[in-house]
Specification:
There is one protein chain. With 257 residues, the protein is α/β, with parallel strands linked by helices. Helix content is 40%, strand content 19%. It starts with 9 loop residues before the first helix and ends with a strand.
């Protein structure tokens, strides 16, 4: 299903998550990359953004295929983790992954705009709000899952650099069609958080330049771009962070009360 404000659909995500995932030696090498270490530090900072000592309840919105919940648990295993996603196949993939890793997590099938869940201390999403025309509306739904004083924390990928937009227009137009580039700045995220009624908003950027490669053209040019993008991403850690663009933009905000 897809509404007029959605840039993706359950069917598109199920198709994406049903594709084979990389693993083995490639995954072990990835763990050693500077970009991965930078990402894990950002995740740890977001997990600690509540400022509370001891275990907290954490909810990830858009949790398929489970890889983020796995990373979060590895970083802070004392917390209680919950996940919500509207893609049935993606949620099945998440359940299999987390069960195989021995990660206890409460996963629910549902839409962030209509689901009813108990309030938590920390609501996270990674690459979710940019898939909607109205990010402020989606941030309001992040907020409604929070206890008073709880924290909403999001990251969005940074695809808005003109050079990257030109490449995507040629080799991955579906990426442009399914991502709202207007939210990909600190000012835009701050505006979305403020419009949702969150306070004490903090924003920042993280990581070196990366190139998306999951929705390329189904032809030789797309395959060539995917190979080049993956090679670029593997080597981007050699570049200064944030040059010529940053990989991710993040923000946190507090539920008043």
């Amino acid at each position: 299903m897809k509404s007029s404000t959605d840039l993706t659909s359950t069917e598109s995500w199920d198709q994406l998550w049903s594709q084979p995932r990389s693993g083995g030696v490639a995954s072990r090498v990835k763990q050693r990359l500077k970009a991965t270490r930078t990402w894990h530090q950002l995740l740890a900072d977001l997990l600690d953004s509540t400022g509370r000592e001891g275990p907290v309840d954490v909810l990830e919105l858009g949790c398929a295929p489970g890889s983020m919940l796995l990373q979060l648990h590895q970083l802070r295993p004392m917390h209680t983790y919950h996940g919500l996603d509207f893609a049935p196949e993606g949620l099945k993939t998440a359940r299999r992954l987390l069960h195989a890793a021995g990660v206890p997590a409460n996963l629910r099938l549902g839409d962030v705009r209509t689901a009813e869940l108990p309030p938590v201390d920390l609501v996270l999403s990674f690459g979710l709000v940019e898939h909607f025309e109205e990010p402020g509306e989606i941030m309001a739904h992040h907020r409604r899952f929070l206890r008073p004083g709880g924290v909403a924390a999001v990251t969005v990928p940074n695809y808005a650099h003109p050079a990257l937009v030109a490449l995507l227009r040629r080799f991955s137009p579906e990426t442009l069609a399914t991502h709202n580039l207007r939210v990909m700045s600190e000012d835009s995220l701050r505006t979305a958080f403020a419009s949702a009624g969150l306070v004490d908003i903090v924003t920042g950027v993280s990581g070196g330049p990366t190139m998306p490669n999951s929705r390329v053209r189904p032809d030789l040019s797309g395959s060539s771009y995917r190979f080049a993008a993956r090679t670029w991403n593997a080597c981007s850690g050699l570049l200064p962070d944030g040059w010529p663009w940053s990989a991710n933009i993040w923000a946190t905000g507090v539920q008043p009360g």
